[in-house]
Amino acid sequence: MNTPITLTETIRLPNLERQPMEPRALKSIVLSAITVTAAVTACIPLFSVLIMLIYRGGKRLSLEIFYALPPTAFEMGGGFGNAIVGTLFMVGIASLISVPFGVLAAVYLAELGPYSRVSQIARFCAKTMTGLPSILAGVFAYAAVVLVMGSYSAWAGGIALSLLMIPVVMLTAEEAIKMVPQSMKDAALGMGCTASQSMVKVVLPVAIPGIITGVVLAVARAAGETAPLLFTALFSDYWLQANEPTASLAVLIYNYSGMPFDNQIELAWTASLVLVLMVLVLNVVSRIIGRRKRT
């Protein structure tokens, strides 16, 4: 028979303090240590490359490299202003092609026909293209643009880079649109908005931070690609001429890193640093824009 508890007896409360040697606490400590160790190990190559870029590329960092042309074999000094302009021009062309098509495709995949046969095929093709070697985009652009135009050009380079950007923009924009709460869409339709008005005035503004993130990722990938530009834009030691071979930072780094001249090797390190800084600035700007859109 159970004895009733009297008011004078003390009720024992469980000990809620963390005990390090308890099985669950010990398991948590071990797994946390493994996670921290793996994260630090993964960051070591990244930071070592950044330190090396800053150390070796920073030696030649000056205003001259932004407006001077590449030097000849035995010439000292010089810069890669034409490569910066060419990179910005070709990435700009690729963005003008990939962003509208990628966002429109994402709208169809996320809202208009998410379960249709066309959407399934489009998703499969986009995911496949994100894993394909970038040189295939260069070969396609070479056959479709360079051979038709009869020469290497910045237009061909921009089209080749757009082929790499479209799948990234499309897939990330689709996920961003799917993240918009259904209640906001229903509220817009309940207030009398048409489907197109709801998409333009409600869904896309809410999804714009995710879309911008996808665009920046695509731009960062395109800016660092070398293989597609070797087949399409090639290289030039002169300033930008859109209908002729065009210089780019990625190809300049590829060419100069294998030369036996110290001046060109130093410029290759500096060009690598500038390319990394350009991608970093794009990421910072996208974060700022994304935060403003959220507020």
TrEMBL record:
<keyword id="KW-1003">Cell membrane</keyword>
<feature type="transmembrane region" description="Helical">
    <location>
        <begin position="198"/>
        <end position="220"/>
    </location>
</feature>
<keyword id="KW-0592">Phosphate transport</keyword>
<dbReference type="InterPro" id="IPR000515">
    <property type="entry name" value="MetI-like"/>
</dbReference>
<dbReference type="InterPro" id="IPR051408">
    <property type="entry name" value="Phosphate_transprt_permease"/>
</dbReference>
<dbReference type="InterPro" id="IPR035906">
    <property type="entry name" value="MetI-like_sf"/>
</dbReference>
<feature type="transmembrane region" description="Helical">
    <location>
        <begin position="83"/>
        <end position="110"/>
    </location>
</feature>
<protein>
    <recommendedName>
        <fullName>Phosphate transport system permease protein PstA</fullName>
    </recommendedName>
</protein>
<feature type="transmembrane region" description="Helical">
    <location>
        <begin position="267"/>
        <end position="285"/>
    </location>
</feature>
<feature type="domain" description="ABC transmembrane type-1">
    <location>
        <begin position="84"/>
        <end position="286"/>
    </location>
</feature>
<feature type="transmembrane region" description="Helical">
    <location>
        <begin position="155"/>
        <end position="177"/>
    </location>
</feature>
<keyword id="KW-0813">Transport</keyword>
<feature type="transmembrane region" description="Helical">
    <location>
        <begin position="131"/>
        <end position="149"/>
    </location>
</feature>
<dbReference type="InterPro" id="IPR005672">
    <property type="entry name" value="Phosphate_PstA"/>
</dbReference>
<dbReference type="GO" id="GO:0005886">
    <property type="term" value="C:plasma membrane"/>
</dbReference>
<dbReference type="GO" id="GO:0005315">
    <property type="term" value="F:phosphate transmembrane transporter activity"/>
</dbReference>
<keyword id="KW-1133">Transmembrane helix</keyword>
<dbReference type="GO" id="GO:0035435">
    <property type="term" value="P:phosphate ion transmembrane transport"/>
</dbReference>
<comment type="similarity">
    <text>Belongs to the binding-protein-dependent transport system permease family. CysTW subfamily.</text>
</comment>
<dbReference type="Pfam" id="PF00528">
    <property type="entry name" value="BPD_transp_1"/>
</dbReference>
<keyword id="KW-0812">Transmembrane</keyword>
<feature type="transmembrane region" description="Helical">
    <location>
        <begin position="28"/>
        <end position="55"/>
    </location>
</feature>
<keyword id="KW-0472">Membrane</keyword>
